[in-house]
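Please check this one:

***
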Amino acid sequence: MADIHWSWHAFAELTPFQLYDALALREKAFTFEQACTEVDLDDVDQHCQHLLGYDGNTLAVGEPYDEGGIDHVCMSYGKR
């Protein structure tokens, strides 16, 4: 199993590739796998820190809240 590289980013610090990776993983997990009917892009992303995990591929994403919780957490299907 490959080591996981974790990194925190403010929205403005995300590269276009990191943003695409995060949104693509969230779309796969929430829209297709879980058939979630809520809109994922909810104008919260711009105000959050973003936790990204890579092990060669996008592995996990999450957004911590100021109150200490984490939202929009998902992992690649084969890594759960």
